[in-house]
Write a structure and sequence with these properties.
Elements lengths: L4 H8 L12 E3 L9 E5 L11 H6 L4 E4 L8 E3 L3 H13 L7 E6 L4 H16 L4 E4 L3 E4 L2 E4 L7 H13 L4 E5 L2 H5 L10 E4 L7 H4 L2 H14 L4 E4 L3 H9 L3 E5 L6 E9 L2 E7 L5 E6 L4 H16 L4 H10 L8 E2 L9 E5 L4 H15 L4 E5 L9 H12 L2 E4 L9 H9 L7 E3 L3 H11 L5 E5 L6 E4 L2 E4 L2 H10 L2
Parallel strand pairs: 1-2, 2-3, 3-4, 5-9, 5-10, 6-9, 10-11, 11-12, 12-13, 17-21, 18-19, 18-21, 19-20
Antiparallel strand pairs: 6-7, 7-8, 13-14, 14-15, 16-17, 22-23
The chain binds ligand UAG and adenosine-5'-triphosphate.
Ligand UAG binds next to α6.
GO molecular function: acid-amino acid ligase activity; ATP binding; magnesium ion binding
Pathway: Cell wall biogenesis; peptidoglycan biosynthesis
Family: Belongs to the MurCDEF family. MurE subfamily.
């Protein structure tokens, strides 16, 4: 809904220069300004949005919003550029979350998987057409799937997607909510009906500085959510969250958890466990996903679904019938006829890598685990040697390769990973396709090959530029070529 000067001033809470006409759109990126749109010049980590004001004006911006006046240009001066961006985006979209039931999922690991499980339960309860999902892997609106750009997009894309869902008749939305999303005000203006906290482990300290800050950022989601809230009791930060935020229930194996996981066991190609609930007795849950951590992901989603009024029958059926989560312990079918498993997984921290390799070990039984992995450039260097150590500890054959390097040198990153690894079972094969091929050639029946780090992603960000790369497709191509 276009905004006149008075509405813009009300939304921003500051004086607004005269406008040539109503504001029809808002963006933080000068390259996407449309005629009659507002440009919010953000003071970024690497560049200053103010430098792009000339381009924004050239493209037809009729309002400039910034934290400092832009010389020579009438500017709405706001206390926070990112808060202003979210406020305008929410108003222009017509506050879509007011008409939706939004489920927030946060935590360091397990957000995407938990979101997919919850989306499957919501689809079973209310129908596919009435459900939506925004995650790292995909945005789903009813039956339409598209690849996602970010875990939690900018406020403009969060609000636009919510509005698109509302307009398409969606009523229930799962919104994966990253700490970046919270810290950088990408989800301001979003009204959450329920929330899940999976866990908190070391990550993103380049943004948050300390674990305490990281935790407090995630806690905001629970502070905002009036409805049911569920935290992982087996995680010290989750237990603290439950103590600190009134009305928060817990899930986990902990004896005091409100939704208690019991008798977890492997069953054929999947996992079975009992979920002891406060209101529905003990439910036998059977799921196609493998791994103890996925039991937690399913328990969190199931608990919140029950709290939100869904029935045990619907949820147990939905979990039983759910498909693979893209890039999360995703089994590549092309490997089945060779007698070994190839698993593509998004694990890109030492904690994630440990989790996936422990499951791989269990699946391999007497077979071996071969792991192809690497660390991303331009972020959290401390985790590199830790990833090396984990891979050497849990894999029989570890192959360090290139992940997204961004501006860094691939060899330098590999050396830092190798510094924590055991050279006896580790080698470096910088080219990612060649590294995967090496593992596939060495795999024998009964083995499990884990290709970790990029999961669902379809692009490799290298210093020389972006190149298309999708691990599952590459595995399939390499196997077909043999
Ligand atoms: C570290 C981080 O989050 N960075 C975000 C930050 O970038 P920045 O401050 O460096 O932006 P900048 O490059 O300095 O540019 C400043 C401003 O100038 C604008 N600009 C720039 C160029 C131009 O030609 N015209 C123009 O207007 C930019 O749009 C921006 O608004 O602000 C930008 C605009 O809001 C974001 O796009 C950008 O996300 C980058 C792309 C990113 O990679 N973020 C990742 C780390 C992230 O958010 N990840 C989390 C998931 C984490 C997880 O759970 O694993 C996520 O939710 O996806
Ligand atoms: N509950 C969990 N606890 C620990 N590790 C997990 C858990 N769930 C998943 N993992 C591991 O972390 C990886 C990422 O899982 P998932 O994508 O579900 O988490 P995420 O929080 O969405 O991560 P990201 O924000 O980086 O996408 C998985 O591939 C697995 O290796």
């Amino acid at each position: 809904m276009p905004l006149d000067q008075e509405s813009v001033a009300r939304v921003l809470g500051v004086e607004v220069p005269p406008l040539a006409g109503p504001i029809v759109a808002v963006t933080h990126d000068s390259r996407t300004v449309v005629p009659g749109g507002a440009f919010v010049a953000i003071n970024g980590f690497t560049s200053r949005g103010a430098d792009f004001v000339p381009q924004a004006l050239e493209r037809g911006a009729t309002l400039i919003v910034a934290e400092q006046p832009v010389p020579g240009v009438p500017t709405a001066v706001v206390p926070s550029d990112r808060i202003a961006l979210a406020a305008l985006a929410t108003e222009l979209a017509g506050h879509p979350s007011d008409d939706l039931t939004v489920y927030g999922v946060t935590g360091t690991n397990g957000k995407t998987t938990t979101s997919y499980v919850l989306h499957a339960i919501l689809s079973a309860a209310y129908g596919e057409a009435a459900t939506g999902l925004m995650t790292t892997a995909e945005v789903i609106v009813g039956s339409e799937h598209e690849l996602a750009v970010r875990t939690t997009g900018e406020a403009t894309s969060v609000q636009a997607n919510l509005a698109r869902m509302r307009d398409a008749g969606v009523q229930h939305v799962v919104l994966e909510t990253s700490s970046h999303g919270i810290h950088l005000h990408r989800v301001d203006g979003t009204c959450y009906a329920a929330a899940i906290f999976t866990n908190l482990t070391r990550d993103h300290l380049d943004l948050h500085g300390t674990m305490e800050n990281y935790y407090r950022t995630k806690r905001k989601l629970f502070e905002w959510t009036a409805g049911p809230k569920l935290a992982n009791a087996d995680d010290a930060w989750g237990a603290r969250l439950a103590r600190e935020i009134d009305g928060t229930l817990t899930f986990g194996t902990d004896a005091n958890a409100d939704y208690r996981i019991e008798h977890e066991r492997r069953d054929g190609a999947g996992t079975v466990f009992d979920l002891v609930t406060p209101g529905h007795g003990s439910l036998a849950v059977r799921m196609p996903l493998l791994g103890g951590y996925n039991v937690h992901n399913v328990a969190g989603a199931a608990g919140i679904a029950l709290e939100m009024g869904m029935t045990p029958d619907v949820l147990t059926r939905a979990v039983l019938e759910m498909g693979q989560v893209p890039g999360r312990f995703e089994r590549v079918p092309a490997a089945f006829e060779r007698g070994f498993e190839v698993v593509v997984d998004y694990a890109h921290t030492d904690v994630g890598l440990r989790a996936v390799l422990e499951v791989a070990r269990e699946v391999a039984g007497d077979g071996r685990v071969l792991c192809v992995y690497g660390a991303a450039g331009a972020r959290d260097r401390d985790k590199r040697p830790k990833m090396g150590a984990v891979a050497s500890e849990l894999a029989d054959v570890a192959i360090i390769t290139t992940d997204d390097t961004y501006y860094e040198d691939a060899q330098d990153i590999a050396s830092e990973v190798l510094a924590g690894a055991d050279p006896a079972n580790t080698r470096v094969v910088p080219d990612r396709r060649e590294a995967i091929d090496t593992a596939l050639r060495e795999a024998r029946p009964g083995d499990v090959v884990v290709v970790a780090g990029k999961g669902h992603e379809r692009v490799q960000h290298l210093a020389s530029g972006d190149v298309p790369f999708h691990d599952a497709t590459v595995v399939t191509e390499l196997l077909a070529a043999r």
